[in-house]
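Lecture 7 notes: from sequence to structure.
We start with the chain below.
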Amino acid sequence: MTAVPPFPEAQIESLARFLGECATGTEISRVLADRRLTDKSGESTKWRRLHWVFTTVQHSDHAANRILDFIQGLLSPARFVGRHDEFERIRADLNARLAFAGLDFGADGQFRPRAAARTLDEAEARVRTIQAKFRGRRIHAEVLKYCSTELMQDNYFHAVFEATKGLA
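Predicted structure tokens for the same chain:
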């Protein structure tokens, strides 16, 4: 992935608070170690630890790439086997926070660029739109795995195409 511009302070705090609720302290420590991110914050709360690490690494790199790498490790789809609904809820909430950066976290655990949201209403509308599309429909998890990005973009031709390729 090319260099992702640094996140504003408010976005770092929002991500840290959110991710602190998504995992245990042990899981966070493991992913930090796996990603070679050092926590010298001295903080005991999960979100404050993450905030310190994210701010420090972004300041040294002048990019948000290592924050995204941490998120990919923490929210790897493999960690959510048997908990699909939980993964989709977390992913939707994460995407609302990343909408301002012009990023989307896909069902495959990869980030993709997209048009950046300019308002809170626009960011939340994206989440509501995709949830409304899927509510009440019995869409198999494997279908969503292959085409959720296309569905978010209202690109139904490519959504069917990607789902067909993935399931074939």
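Points to note: The chain has two domains: 1-74, 82-168. The beta strands are 103-105, 111-113.
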